[in-house]
Specification:
Layout: H1 15-32, H2 36-57, H3 62-66, H4 75-87, H5 91-115, H6 128-135, H7 140-147, H8 161-177, H9 181-198, H10 205-209, H11 216-224, H12 229-235
Length: 238
């Protein structure tokens, strides 16, 4: 749920992409178990998911797809955007239809990515969201599920994958504890604030790093050199 509207309605990558990447990671874990090989396959699947999503919707960000800024600067602007969303874009029904069309495509992309033969996985660490998940103490399955978020989902340079993983894990932990939505959202809000201060108020991976990663090996090398370590520390410290 926190991914709806592009991460807490900030307008970044469509929640369908975050969800599809999680599904890819879950299947990679079922086939390969924990570890760098499964994480690598999850990232490859996420790359395919991003490509197929963009090909069908032209953009991957919720803001650009819906043409609505979910946190507008004025009430008047909010009303105008909501009117456009519900009348021109079909509102939530349009999103549901898009999800229904994309689900079988995503399933096919995941199946293809995980059935193909690929080069050996780089030595760990492979994925910054997986590193964060391990540090937050989640299971091996959840660690692999988060792996595809790397580099802003499949190395696409979008909103930080480590932040997305932290938000997802905070939501799961809150549900497990039985706390309400308001408490969970408050925890997520505090985490986002800490993240933004640490990342010089930048949200997207490509802006934080200063470039997009060329491939999984490039990303893994960046992590081995200490990249993302400060952000991961901030996200895992309350």
């Amino acid at each position: 749920m926190p991914f709806a509207g592009g991460i807490m309605q900030y307008g970044y990558q469509c929640g369908m992409l975050w969800g599809a990447a999680l599904a890819a990671g879950a299947q990679a874990y079922r086939l390969l178990g924990p570890g760098p090989q499964a994480e690598t396959r999850a990232i490859i699947a996420a790359q395919r998911l991003v490509e197929s999503f963009r090909a069908r919707n032209k953009n991957i960000n919720c803001l650009e797809i819906t043409e609505i800024e979910w946190k507008p600067s004025s009430k008047r602007l909010a009303l105008m955007q909501m009117f456009r969303f519900f009348i021109k874009k079909g509102g939530p029904i349009g999103c549901f239809r898009m999800a229904a069309r994309y689900a079988p495509v995503a399933f096919s992309e995941i199946d293809t990515a995980l059935s193909e033969k690929h080069a050996e996985a780089p030595s760990p660490p492979v994925s910054c969201p997986a590193m964060l998940a391990q540090k937050m103490g989640v299971s091996g399955m959840h660690t692999v599920m988060a792996a595809g978020f790397a580099g802003g989902i499949g190395l696409s340079g979008g909103a930080c994958g480590a932040l997305g993983a932290a938000i997802w894990i905070i939501g799961m932990n809150g549900r497990r504890e039985g706390v309400g939505k308001e408490v969970i959202n408050s925890r997520i809000g505090d985490t986002i604030e800490r993240f933004l201060r640490s990342a010089d108020f930048k949200f997207e991976c490509s802006e934080i790093v200063g470039r997009r990663f060329e491939n999984i090996g490039d990303h893994a090398g960046y992590l081995r050199d200490g990249g993302c370590s400060e952000i991961i520390e901030v996200l895992t410290t309350e």
